[in-house]
């Protein structure tokens, strides 16, 4: 089971930028059914030259239809997807461009698969939302934009696709941009860019199009290359989550394996376990390369006395004042289960590496996806509905407001009856 930001933390695991001198950018596409997401990604991968020739040749050989390359096949990872003609789960592709590495997630547009979109968004630096120029802004476009903001994405691009059907009309583009802008202004702390495109014909995907001389902004690729992904690199603060504890060298020692979420870890550093207040001094530090003096790798291990009371999931920190231990919290959630939320029932509440039992006391309010306004409605949340709830915890959790700290503020709810993740969101 993972929280929204557990997935995003893979940025640190996949590529060590300080070692290879490259930067990793993750982004996802979102949109309603048949808005052209898979075609966009196929065009982007194919025209950017970021894929190895053998990969292009393999996909091209099996995806030509009527003599034309089926661009959507570049993201279809499952045979069943191709046979049914829809994307039923998030498909991931990796490509390179200059000194940057990109991972793109193509998620389904159907209402019932909104949870897949939210999962893909949760570890993205940017979200590309496609709007069909013919149909205009639909409910899924509004929902996807809200969920991207709710997941902590700061950069959102609205791609007005199929503009070729309107002879690349500036007025049609401005109409959609004006309508969506008025809504997106209600979302906090996001930067929005509107780009007119034709994914099918490759206009404004890699290069600027001659067919939109009135547009002075970037192409989709230039937009992605210009992103500055948020990286939490504050060296004056340290945060690590205990993954497991092993018997160390000698009977008087234990070895703690941690996931380093923030800062760098060095021998002699003094950390405090947020829940128990136990002080831990880092000794015998090691990482993937062996014993080290200091490391910023995502996983490390060090020695502690055998008397330690540390447990799996404990949070170790230094200089981090945003964290607080709570036995009750308010959270904004997107409900992801077919069965509605049940107030008064017990769920498993997972924040970071720690899971405790909690009871949803009440629905405080819900979000009107049409207006992005809170409404006073305490009915149980149903599939894909967003609202704020009050949760009492059987044991304390260490959290921070999601708007201030994505890692310590992200949470999921798990149904203990079947182990399914039923909701995801953030601490308010």
Break the fold down into its secondary structure elements and pairings:
Elements: H1 4-8, H2 10-14, H3 17-20, E1 23-31, H4 37-48, H5 53-62, E2 64-65, E3 68-69, H6 79-84, E4 91-97, E5 100-106, H7 114-121, E6 126-132, H8 139-150, E7 155-161, H9 170-184, E8 191-196, H10 220-225, E9 238-247, E10 253-262, E11 265-266, E12 270-273, E13 279-281, E14 283-287, E15 290-291, E16 294-295, E17 299-305, E18 315-318, E19 324-335, E20 346-351, E21 354-368, E22 373-375, E23 386-399, H11 406-409, E24 410-414, E25 421-427
Given the C-alpha coordinates, what overall shape results?
globular
State the end-to-end CA separation. 22 Å
- Kindly name the structural category: alpha+beta
Biggest sheet character: 8 strands, antiparallel
At the fold tier of CATH, the topology name of the largest domain is: Rossmann fold
General description of the model:
This protein is of the alpha+beta class and 428 residues long. The protein has three domains: 4-225, Rossmann fold; 238-318, Translation factors (Elongation Factor Tu (Ef-tu), domain 3); 324-427, Elongation Factor Tu (Ef-tu), domain 3 (Beta Barrel), CATH 2.40.30.10. The protein is 20% helix and 37% strand. The chain has helices at 4-8, 10-14, 17-20, 37-48, 53-62, 79-84, 114-121, 139-150, 170-184, 220-225, 406-409, and strands spanning 23-31, 64-65, 68-69, 91-97, 100-106, 126-132, 155-161, 191-196, 238-247, 253-262, 265-266, 270-273, 279-281, 283-287, 290-291, 294-295, 299-305, 315-318, 324-335, 346-351, 354-368, 373-375, 386-399, 410-414, 421-427. The protein has an eight-stranded antiparallel beta sheet with strand order 13-12-18-9-10-17-14-15, with no helix packed on it. A six-stranded mixed beta sheet has the order 4-5-1-6-7-8, sandwiched between helices. It has a six-stranded antiparallel beta barrel with strand order 19-23-21-20-24-25. A hairpin with a 2-residue loop joins strand 2 (64-65) and strand 3. The radius of gyration is 23 Å and the shape is globular. Mean pLDDT is 85; it is low at 1-20 and 77-88.
């Amino acid at each position: 089971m993972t929280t929204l930001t557990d997935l995003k933390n893979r940025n640190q695991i996949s590529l060590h930028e300080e070692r290879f001198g490259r930067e990793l950018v993750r982004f996802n596409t979102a949109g309603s059914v048949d808005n052209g997401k898979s075609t966009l990604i196929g065009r982007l991968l194919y025209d950017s030259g970021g894929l190895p020739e053998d990969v292009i040749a393999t996909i091209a050989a099996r995806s030509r239809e009527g003599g034309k390359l089926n661009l959507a096949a570049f993201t279809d990872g499952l045979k069943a997807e191709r046979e049914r003609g829809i994307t039923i789960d998030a498909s991931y592709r990796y490509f390179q461009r200059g000194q940057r590495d990109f991972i793109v997630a193509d998620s389904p547009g159907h209402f019932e698969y909104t949870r897949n979109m939210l999962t893909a968004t949760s570890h993205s630096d940017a979200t590309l939302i496609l709007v069909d120029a013919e149909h205009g802004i639909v409910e899924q476009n509004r929902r996807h934009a809200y969920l991207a903001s709710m997941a902590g994405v700061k950069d959102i691009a609205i791609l007005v696709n199929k503009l070729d059907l309107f002879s690349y009309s500036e007025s049609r583009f401005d109409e959609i941009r004006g309508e969506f802008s008025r809504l997106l202004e209600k979302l906090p702390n996001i930067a929005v860019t509107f780009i007119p495109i034709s994914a099918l014909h490759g206009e404004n995907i890699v290069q600027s199009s001659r067919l939109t001389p009135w547009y002075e902004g970037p192409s989709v690729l230039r937009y992605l290359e210009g992103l500055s992904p948020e990286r939490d690199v504050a060296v004056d603060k340290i945060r690590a989550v205990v993954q497991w504890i092993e018997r160390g060298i000698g009977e008087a020692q234990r070895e703690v394996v941690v996931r380093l979420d923030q800062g760098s870890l060095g021998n002699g550093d003094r950390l405090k376990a947020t829940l128990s207040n136990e002080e831990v001094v880092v000794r015998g530090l090691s990482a993937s390369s062996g014993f080290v003096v200091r490391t910023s790798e995502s996983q490390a291990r060090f020695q502690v006395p055998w008397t330690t009371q540390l447990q799996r999931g404990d949070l170790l920190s230094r200089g981090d004042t945003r964290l607080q231990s709570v036995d009750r919290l308010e959270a904004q959630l997107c409900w992801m289960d077919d069965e509605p939320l049940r107030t008064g029932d017990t769920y498993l509440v997972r924040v970071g590496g720690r899971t405790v039992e909690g009871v949803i006391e009440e629905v405080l309010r819900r979000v009107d996806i049409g207006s992005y306004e809170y409404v006073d409605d305490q009915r149980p949340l149903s599939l894909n509905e967003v609202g704020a709830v009050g949760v009492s915890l059987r044991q304390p959790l260490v959290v921070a407001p999601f708007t201030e700290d994505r890692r310590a503020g992200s949470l999921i709810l798990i149904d203990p009856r079947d182990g399914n993740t039923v909701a995801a969101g953030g601490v308010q």
